[in-house]
Amino acid sequence: MTSKNLVKVLEESLQDLRDKGLYNQIDTLDEANGPEISIEGKKVINLSSNNYLGFATDPDLIAAANKATEEYGVGAGAVRTINGTLKIHNELEATLAKFKKTEATIAFQSGFNSNMGAIPAVMTKKDAILSDELNHASIIDGCRLSGAKIIRVKHQDMEDLRAKAKEAVESGLYEKIMYITDGVFSMDGDVAKLDQSIDICEEFDIITYVDDAHGSGVMGKGAGTVKHFGLSDRVDIQMGTLSKGLGVVGGYVAGKQVLIDWLKVRGRPFLFSTSLTPGAAAAAKAGVEKLMTSDEPVTKLWDNADYLKQGLVNLGFNIGHSESPITPCIVGDENLTQQFSTRLREEGVYAKSIVFPTVPRGTGRVRNMPSAAHTKDQLDRALAIYEKVGKELGII
Ligand SMILES: *Cc1c(COP(=O)(O)O)cnc(C)c1O
C-alpha cells in the first residue's frame, strides 16, 4: 500500500498554496514557442518566452539538429566520462570557447546543471561564497550543495560587497572566497555592475563567477555580460545557457583550461548524468556560429526591445530600471497585477504576472520578454492592447 501520510501532506500543502493564491496553473502551448503562440486554440502575442533571438524555431538550427540526429542518433548513450562524448560535444565546446574568448568550455545538460555542477566542484565547506541576494535558484542550490558559508550581499550594493569581502578575507576563516552574481537579473532586467564588482574582487583576490543565463545571446553582441564590460580575461568562471538566447537546451561553463579540466573530473552532472542529445549539441553549435558570423539577430532583439520599452514608457507605464530586453511593467498591488495579466491575455497578449514572494511585496509586475522574432506589427498590436487594458484598470 502506498503512503496515506504522503498524500495527506501533499494535499494540504497544495491547498495551502491555492488558499494563498500562490498555486501556478501551467498553460500548454499548441505549437512552437514563437513570437505568437496558441493556447487552447487562442492566438496571443507571446511576451513571456526566453527565446530572445527566435532561435528555437530557426530553420538553420532545426536542420543542424536533424542532421546530427541522423548521424549520431537521438541520444548520446552514456555520460560524457564513460563513452557519451561524441565529436559533436567537443565541437560545441570548441566553438563556445572561441565565441567566449576563453581557453576552454564544458557543456552541461542545462544551465541549472551547470551551476549545480560547477559551484560545488570548486567550493567546499572550508570556503565562503558572497552571493547577490537576488541570484537565481540554481545558484542558491549550487552554493548550498557546496557546503561553503553563504554570505548574502545586498542586491547590486558595492559598499556591502566591499565590506563583506573585507570582513571575510580578514577573518582568516576561509581557504577560498568567491563572489557570484547573475549577469542580468531576470525580474528587473538590471545588469550586474561588473565594472565595479570585479575591481573589488581583484583587490581582495576573490574568485569571480558570473551566471549569464539572461546575458548569453543578448549582451556583448551575444557573447555575454562579461564581454559587454570588456572583462573576458578578468572573470574566473562564466556560466551560460544554451536554452534562452540560443533557443535550444543545455548550459556551459567557460574559463581557463585548468578550471575546465577540473570540472570534467569533478562536475557531478557531467560525470553522472547522460550528456546533451546530439541534436541539441548541434543546434546550439549552429546558433553560436550564427552569432559569430552576423550581428543581425542581436541587433534585431535590441531594436525590438527598445521599441517596446519606449512604447510602454510613452503610454505611461513604469518599467523600473531595466537595462536589458527584460521589461517589467510595474503595477504594485498583487491582485491588480494578476488581473492586468489576465485581461492582457484575454485581449491577445501573453505576459506573465510576477508577484510576492518572487519579487518584494507591493512591486507586482507583468514581465515582457521581447525577441528578435517579433515584427513591429506584433509589437504595435501588443502596445495597443496594453493601452486599452492599462486605461481600463486605471494603471495608466
Ligand atoms: C534560467 C536560468 C538558469 C537555468 O538555465 P536552464 O538552461 O534553463 O537550466 C540559471 N541561471 C539563471 C540566472 C537563469 O535565469
UniProtKB/TrEMBL annotation:
The keyword Membrane does not apply. CDD domains: KBL_like. GO terms for molecular function: glycine C-acetyltransferase activity. Gene3D superfamilies: Aspartate Aminotransferase, domain 1, Type I PLP-dependent aspartate aminotransferase-like (Major domain). It is an enzyme of class 2 (transferase). It holds the Pfam family Aminotran_1_2. The keyword Transferase applies. Its EC number is 2.3.1.29. Residues 42-383 form the Aminotransferase class I/classII large domain. Its cofactor is pyridoxal 5'-phosphate. InterPro entries: Aminotrans_II_pyridoxalP_BS, Aminotransferase_I/II_large, AON_synthase_class-II, AONS_Archaea/Firmicutes, PyrdxlP-dep_Trfase, PyrdxlP-dep_Trfase_major, PyrdxlP-dep_Trfase_small. Keywords: Acyltransferase, Pyridoxal phosphate, Transferase. Homodimer. Belongs to the class-II pyridoxal-phosphate-dependent aminotransferase family. This is Glycine C-acetyltransferase. It comes from Facklamia lactis.
